[in-house]
Amino acid sequence: MEGAAENRSAWYEGFMFPDQSFTFEFLRVMAKALEHGSDIGECLETALRIKEDGLDPQVLIANWYKKWLEIARRIHQAADDCLARGHRVSARDAYFRASEYYRSADFYLHENPGNPAILELSENMLLCFNKARELSTPVFEAIEIPYEGSTLPGYFCPADGGGPAPTLIIHQGFDGTAEETYFGYGRAVMARGYNCLLFEGPGQGSVIRKLGLPFRYDWEKVVTPVVDYALKKPEVDPKRIALMGLSMGGVLAPRAAAYEHRLAALIANAGIYDLFENHLRGLGLTRAEAIKMLTEKSEEYDQAVGEAMEKSVQVYWGITNGMWVFQAKTPSELQLKQEKFHVRDCAHLIKCPTLVIDSEAEQFFPGQARQLYHALTCPKTFLVFKAGEGSELHCQAGGHLLGNQQILDWLDETFTSLIGKAGNP
Fold first, then answer.
1. Is 212 left (phi over 0), alpha (psi -120 to 50) or beta?
2. Closest alpha carbon to 342 in 296, 262, 280
3. Which 8-state DSSP code applies to residue 211?
4. DSSP string, 262-285
5. DSSP reduced 3-state for 167
6. What is the percent of the chain with per-residue pLDDT over 70, rounded to a whole number?
7. Predicted model pTM
8. Residue 267, strand partner residues
9. What integer pLDDT is reported at residue 53 of this predicted model?
10. Which CATH code fits 140-274+341-425?
11. Of the four listed, 94, 348, 363, 376, which is most buried by Cβ atoms within 10 Å?
């Protein structure tokens, strides 16, 4: 019996969808039920409706959009009806769910950045989220952070109790939004007595959608204005500010921490040392060889990628979303732009205690976390979410309770240690 258990399939394999990308994104939505950002039955019913319409990747992509949009609109209308009848709690919860369903409907639509549905879905997501935010107790704050002649959007979720409190700044990576981050982390952080500051930078959320600003590798130029903003708030203890980068944020946040030394702690979830090297595994080339190939044989590479996109939802989405958020015209140009996203030359400059997170079922950046950990010279901790515990997927998808337990316990202990070193009571 024990041997049979060891040979069984992982819990997430083929769950609801045969396609790995759809399975992961479905779990990503359904997991938000923990914080009223979705409901399990609504998610399962939506998934079944998508499956009924066929298994071809392109058919699935079209139906993914259609079915999540249908439920988003239905729950949005329910929220409006509840609010009109004075049921504020019911309206709040429905607006939160509708917001997440609009986000999911948008997920695979980025092949054509001019598609009006992209901005429409984003606006509806923001509308619903902010209506829910205004109905929340306590109300948390929508913020605009000054940034290079413009502003970056975000939310400031204050700790209970008043007075200066430790603060965790969180940003997403390749495709996430500040709004969904509230469900996965915001409430859990506030429950620890921390402020939580969520923000979107270039390449992310409404910044790419409304301002058209693509990702930049020198992420310290993004994080430093955010720290400046946080330090102006009386609720923030200036000695206890931490930064967590999620997903591709696992390379952006370490890059920022290498140069922004007002951070007291850093969390890379998942840890990434070199984004370009992560892609080299599939090419079987050295860095120099890959750059030469992408430059001199770009047409051949682009054709090969185009053929792969026709067979895989994951490849299709990764390339179309990547070309949009990096403002690249071709797959080869996308790869070349990502070449600068690493901490090869600056990981040793990070000074604050750092938590590097890996997962045994990490499907996007395998091996990268350990490389980042070994490159660090600061106080450091390596945390692995193990297979069989339910939190072993990328960024602990589907297992956020265990994820937040271990991540935020580390932050508790790190902040406590800082207080002790400062000689404070």
1. left
2. 280
3. I
4. T-SEEEEET--SBHHHHHHHHHT-
5. strand
6. 95
7. 0.94
8. 244, 355
9. 62
10. 3.40.50.1820
11. 94
Integer Cα distance of 26 and 44 in angstroms: 9
Instruction: List for the chain the helix, strand, coil content (%; round to 5).
Output: 55, 15, 30
Residues 363 and 394: beta-carbon distance below 8 Å: yes
Residue 149 has pLDDT above 60, yes or no: yes
Q: Which 3-state string (H, E, C) describes the chain?
A: CHHHHHHCCCCCCCCCCCCHHHHHHHHHHHHHHHHCCCCHHHHHHHHHHHHHCCCCHHHHHHHHHHHHHHHHHHHHHHHHHHHHCCCHHHHHHHHHHHHHHHHHHHCCCCCCCCCHHHHHHHHHHHHHHHHHHHCCCCCCEEEEEEECCEEEEEEEECCCCCCCEEEEEEECCCCCCHHHHHHHHHHHHHHCCCEEEEECCCCCHHHHHHHCCCCCCCCHHHHHHHHHHHHCCCCEEEEEEEEEEECCHHHHHHHHHHHCCCCCEEEEECCCCEHHHHHHHHHCCCHHHHHHHHHHCHHHHHHHHHHHHCCCHHHHHHHHHHHHHCCCCCHHHHHHHHCCCECCCCHHHCCCCEEEEEECCCCCCCCHHHHHHHHCCCCEEEEEECCCCCCCCHHHCCCHHHHHHHHHHHHHHHHHHHHHHHCCC
Spans of all domains in the chain: 17-138, 140-274+341-425, 276-338
Q: Is the omega angle on the peptide bond into residue 138 within 30 degrees of 0, that is, cis?
A: yes
Burial zone of 13 (CB within 10 Å; 0-12 exposed, 13-18 middle, 19+ buried): exposed
Helix (H, G, I), strand (E, B) or coil at 356: strand
Exposed/middle/buried for 164, CB within 10 Å: 0-12, 13-18, 19+? middle
Q: What is the CA radius of gyration of the chain?
A: 21
Mean pLDDT of the chain: 93
Does 3 have pLDDT greater than 80? no
CA 336-175-28 angle, to 5 degrees, is 140
Contact 206, 281 (CB under 8 A): no
* Assigned token pair, 58: 């392109």
Is the bond leading into 268 cis (omega within 30 degrees of zero)?
no
| CATH number at 17-138 | 1.20.1440.110
